[in-house]
Amino acid sequence: MIVVHTQRQLSQAWLDQYRHQRPHFACVLGFTATCLIPNISAAGLTPADRELTALADGEFLSRGIQPSYRYPLPPLIAGASPAIITKAILSALDIPITIFNSGLPQAPSFDCVDLGGQPAACLSTGQAMSIELVQHLWQQGLAWGSKLIATAPYIVIGECVVGGTTTALALLTGLGIKADGKVNSSHPQCNHQQKKLLVEQGLQLFPTHATAWEIVAAIGDPMQVVAAAMAVAASKQGGVLLAGGTQMLAVYTLILKLAPDCHLERIAVGTTGWVTQDRSADAVGLAKSLAPAMFFSAQMQFANSGYEQLQVYDQGFVKEGVGAGGAAITASLYRDWGSNEVLQATEELLGLML
Asked: How would you classify residue 322: left for phi > 0, otherwise alpha for psi between -120 and 50, otherwise beta?
């Protein structure tokens, strides 16, 4: 099920090293007011829905099926939350999980680690976060990366930040990477022009020679900082799988800028085949430009599912989120699962929900 897209020899060595080993799964929840812009994301039908998406995904990932939820999974333009895929895999394989609040707009209703973060303002303001907040979150990420890697041979770092592919484009562009037209979206056809205009607004509002710290503070989101620091710290002792598509490629780029001497040979990026096959973006091309980035994907097929909410993944909706691709890669490594096993587990959980 796993397809390697870059650095074939290094990637295969990484996969072989962690085969049949159980990781610790971390999910970093965050928020950027960028998600409140109309039509910027399909991860929630309305801006009000999108404001609560990360809280809902975190609650479901933590508590599973419940009689009622404080933050129910929001209606999407099409499809079901990728949190269902991730939860189904982690539960079936008994993989430990820790959820982190890097800056949510409301108090979580579930057990999670509060990192003392804050929601980010819209990237178009050029003042998404303060430098002090960024440095605080970096230190928190370093501390928790060290703690998590002490519990497992490798850690998987997923995320939920609605609007995060737009902050990913902003961060990549601000750090000098030609990413326009390459980042993915939860929409079937990526809204590149809308993203580009927002990024240009944000980039105009800080100095040309800004440092990487100043760039992520100006136009980034809190998850990016935490995930990057976690990966840097964990790579000192074990492996890291950044579970996501172009959002995690942006995190990888931040690592290259802030900690270029870390153990990059232990840090890989893994996503879904729906991301790498998206013809309206170019995640693989982006990954190739970030050498020595190891980038691979879990090739899942949901077209024959009995549930329309899952069938639409093969039509380009949703594609990724909440570490779904990384969870599927883990299932393949740990228990030799293929696409059929992932679909079966996901259908069983969705069926119980419905």
From this structure: left
Q: Alpha helix (H) ranges present in the chain? A: 8-17, 47-63, 83-93, 131-149, 164-174, 192-203, 212-219, 222-234, 246-258, 273-276, 283-288, 308-311, 324-335, 339-353
Instruction: Decide if 224 contacts 148 (C-beta within 8 A).
Output: no
159 beta partners: 28
Tokens encoding 37? 């812009």
Which pTM was predicted? 0.98
Q: Give residue limits of the domains in the chain.
A: 2-353
- State the Cα–Cα distance between residues 308 and 306, nearest whole angstrom: 7
In this structure, how many other beta carbons lie within 10 angstroms of the beta carbon of residue 130?
Answer: 11
Mean pLDDT by 10-residue block, N- to C-terminus, for the chain (354 residues)?
Answer: 97 98 98 96 90 97 95 87 97 98 97 98 97 98 98 98 97 96 91 95 87 97 98 98 98 97 97 96 97 96 96 94 98 98 98 92
Those residues whose C-beta lies under 8 Å from the C-beta of residue 222, and which sit 6 or more positions away, are: 30, 31, 102, 103, 115, 117, 118, 119, 120, 129, 133, 137, 161
Which CATH fold topology does 2-353 show?
Rossmann fold (3.40.50)
Residue 10 and residue 352: Cα distance in Å, rounded? 40
Question: Residue 50: helix, strand or coil by DSSP?
Answer: helix
CA–CA separation, 90 and 97 (whole Å):
8
Structure tokens at 174: 């601000």
Tell me the pairing of strands 154-160 and 113-114.
unpaired
Q: How far does Cα 299 stand from its chain's mean position?
A: 17
CA dihedral of 172, 169, 215, 220, whole degrees rounded to 10 = -130
Q: What is the rounded distance in angstroms from the CA atom of residue 326 to the CA atom of residue 251? A: 15
Amino acid code (one letter) for 92: A
